[in-house]
Amino acid sequence: MVLRTAGGRLSLLVFLWSVAVVLGQYGWSVTYTTRSICTLKGSTVNLSSSYTYPSGTVTSTFWFIKTFDVENYVNLRNDSDYNGRVTYHSDKTNGHTLTITDLRESDSATYKFRFITDQTGGKYFGNPGVTLSVTDLQVKVTTTWWSTTLTCSTTCTLTGNPTYTWYRNSKIVQGASSPSYTFYFKTEDSFYCAVKGISSPAVCECD
Q1: Which positions fall inside the Ig-like domain (predicted)?
Q2: For residue range 90-120, what is the model confidence (pLDDT) as tens digits?
């Protein structure tokens, strides 16, 4: 919009006012600390975010994965699938953390954070969210004529470069970043791997 006056001052004022109105529509954001997490069944995970808004007071904050319609977001605390396994923690700098305990493979989903303010239309959630993949531990066996290699396997790459601990008859035989363990003689011993206290099913290498 351009209005002309003899000195041009009015047109400049109107232009600046228009810019201010456009900028006033912004200022809403949600930032996720991590966008993708792969972790183990039975473990605990923390999903973190921070948010900004232009004005007003925040009246409600929550995480969700389900919606029933355009404006009906299901707070995880009210979702029967997460009963007793979800806690929220907020800090003074607009940070918000979701903790889920006793993870199940069915918890694999994209989690999003939503907040509501006391301003008209003051509702916002952040895309794309945090993609959580929950996997269990399985042991794959590779045998040659002279050795057997056991590999602790997951359906996704575990977040955080975890340490794999190998047990032979319940005694630790290897603790390292490698998910594989090799031995060179036939045995009836029982082997299993563990990550962060979560164990795989046992494997017996019998003659």
Answers
A1: 128-207
A2: 998 899 999 999 999 999 999 999 999 999 8
